[in-house]
Amino acid sequence: MQDEPKFVPQRGTAFFPDGRSVRDQVMHSVARGQENVGDFFHTGLQNGKEVDALPFPATLTVLERGQEEFNTYCTPCHSRVGNGAGMIVERGYKPAGNFHDAKRLAQPLSHYFYVISNGYGAMPDYAAQVSVPDRWAIAAYIRALQLSQNAKQSDVPAGIGVQQLSEVAQQQGLPASYAEPWKMPTTAVYATPPGPGTPAMAPAENITTPDASRHPQIQLENGDSPDASGAPAVPPATTRQQAVTPAKAGGAKR
After folding, report:
1. In a domain? residue 48
2. CA-CA distance, 221 to 100, in Å (whole number)?
3. Domain residue limits at 48
4. Res 39 pLDDT > 80
5. Looking at residues 154-182, what average pLDDT do you find?
């Protein structure tokens, strides 16, 4: 290694026209530890307050990325439609925030970025799992999801077809009742084990469980179909009674 060809720091070379072995830094590069992490892009705050804005345009690419990340990290608690009735809630966990109630609809967009970054209540932070741009993309998708679940006929652009979810279900060979709205499951109650040898989460008497007769929702325009048992090939997608065609994951994009 002592004799291998290499550039020695601060020593000249005839290899480059300027005679220097050290190359210029890439434009706009930032030294480790000197990045500005106190700006709106990294904190979601302007003058210490949450605002209803994004640090970059909410393009279709951003929304698609937000949908992907939301479905990966958020749906276990909040569900695909963001109503707070995810799969772990059906199994007895505390209900998550419902993005469609009056409280969440009134929250500024950067609030969602801030909560993903720092956690809130029973929700831990996801700063290690989700990058800063992806947290903003999720926030943008949540807003699009809110708009889609409260969309009106007048919001649909001219020339775009609209179908009832029951019609879409029937087109896929499912009963019209397959598209009924989701219901918040009844949370199970567990008893404290009386002593050694008892299961750590022994069910108490008269335990209440989720409504087993509830039909999951369909996913629109994704090409999936039920498997041989009649179960949907994908998790529930939407509670909306009308959907814009074409659409993805609950019609969150228009």
Report:
1. yes
2. 23
3. 37-152
4. yes
5. 82
Q: Which amino acid, one-letter code, is at 54?
A: L
Q: Does a structural domain hold residue 158?
A: no
| 68 domain residue, yes or no | yes
Q: Can you give the pLDDT at residue 136?
A: 97
Q: Which of 110, 127, 123, 140 is nearest to 41 (CA)?
A: 110
Phi, psi of 115 (to 5 degrees): -70, -40
List b or e across 197-216, with b for residues whose CB sees 16 or more CB atoms inside 10 angstroms.
eeeeeeeeeeeeebeeebbb
3 state DSSP class of 203? strand
Short-list 174, 184, 179, CA closest to 242:
179
CATH code at position 101: 1.10.760.10
Cα–Cα distance measured from residue 165 to residue 178, given in angstroms and rounded to the nearest whole number: 9
pLDDT tens profile 222-254: 334 334 344 433 344 343 434 333 334 444 444
DSSP secondary structure letters along 171-190? HTT--GGGGPPP-PPPPP-B
Ramachandran bin of 127, using left for φ above 0, alpha for ψ from -120 to 50, beta for the remaining angles: alpha
Burial of 167 (0-12, 13-18, 19+ CB in 10 A): middle
Distance from chain centroid for Cα 248: 14
| Domain count across the chain | 1
